[in-house]
Design brief:
Pfam families: AraC_binding, HTH_18
Number of strands: 11
Order of helices and strands: HEEEEEEEEEEHHEHHHHHHH
Helix content: 40-55%
Keywords: DNA-binding, Repressor, Transcription, Transcription regulation
CATH superfamily of the largest domain: Regulatory protein AraC
InterPro entries: AraC-bd, Homeodomain-like_sf, HTH_AraC, RmlC_Cupin_sf
Number of helices: 10
GO molecular function: DNA-binding transcription factor activity; sequence-specific DNA binding
Largest sheet: 6 strands, antiparallel
Strand content: 15-25%
CATH architecture of the largest domain: Sandwich
Protein name: HTH araC/xylS-type domain-containing protein
Shape: globular
Structural class: alpha+beta
Length: 266
């Protein structure tokens, strides 16, 4: 963990937007790998969405990781920072506090309806001037749609527990590792029962569920990169494409191909 923290200190700083000129304002940004946004806050709520890649936003030592179609909601005046471990193209919808009445009062992951990624992609591909009435209407539709989105908390929780963090880091690096809970527990000199207890306490879910979520997150990024279903299944440790498709549909309610068509426009 100490080594990872030192690595992040070596990342290049990208300035955050602090001079926000309108009550409802959208910005799209390409961020290179190994960059970070310093801790900041302002009187605007933020909906942050990644077109390509995975975002990591840190609030009070809680790490929010989210691939599309999930976005991160941050209420106004909330201190936060961001890390881009890999290249990511993302957008932020800034919502002044006077317009946040119907938005959640706590930070978390918003599960968006397909309309929201479609609107954001439309704006991305068809840029309009900020004073264009059509553009302002699109932003209002975005805000109205977000007010109905489901807040699902941190999709992939992290932990400060050293032994459990070691396991999570290992699974991040080797998502195809299909070791049993007992085998993982032996890696950190724990019993299977103790590891299961720590997982539930620290993550709010079983390690099995956490691993499934990790694989879904990795799969969505790979789908966005244009990888085949067969290659994704192999990279994630599945013996067959059908087993991977079953897992993905169970969690996302779409097959991988349906997800790609809905959210990546392909």
């Amino acid at each position: 963990m100490k080594k990872a923290a030192q690595r992040i200190q070596d990342f290049q700083e990208i300035p955050a937007y602090n001079n926000i000129p309108a009550p409802l304002w959208l910005r799209i940004r390409d961020a290179p790998a190994e960059t970070f946004y310093p801790e900041h806050a302002h009187a605007w709520g933020e909906f942050i969405y990644a077109f390509d890649g995975v975002l990591e936003v840190n609030i009070d030592q809680i790490h929010y990781l989210t691939p599309p179609p999930y976005g991160i909601w941050l209420p106004p005046h909330m201190q936060h920072s961001g890390i881009n471990r890999h290249e990511v193209t993302h957008c932020t919808l800034y919502v002044h506090e006077t317009l946040c009445e119907l938005m959640p009062q706590q930070a978390g992951i918003l599960l968006t309806a397909p309309l929201i990624p479609a609107l954001l992609e439309h704006i991305r591909k068809n840029p309009l001037t900020e004073n264009d009435p059509e553009y302002l209407r699109l932003l209002q539709v975005l805000l109205d749609s977000l007010s109905h989105a489901e807040l699902v908390g941190s999709y992939l929780p992290t932990t400060q527990h050293p032994a459990l963090a070691k396991i999570l880091n290992h699974l991040h690096e080797y998502p195809a590792d299909n070791s049993t809970l007992d085998e993982l527990a032996k890696m950190i000199n724990m019993t299977e029962r103790t590891l299961a207890r720590y997982s539930q306490k620290e993550l709010g879910m079983s390690l099995h569920e956490w691993r499934q979520r990790l694989k879904v997150m990795k799969a969505m990024s790979m789908l966005n990169q244009g990888k085949t279903i067969e290659n994704i299944a192999l990279d994630l440790g599945y013996a067959s494409s059908s087993a991977f498709i079953y897992m993905f549909k169970r969690w996302m309610h779409f097959t991988p191909d349906q997800f790609r068509k809905l959210y990546q426009g392909s």
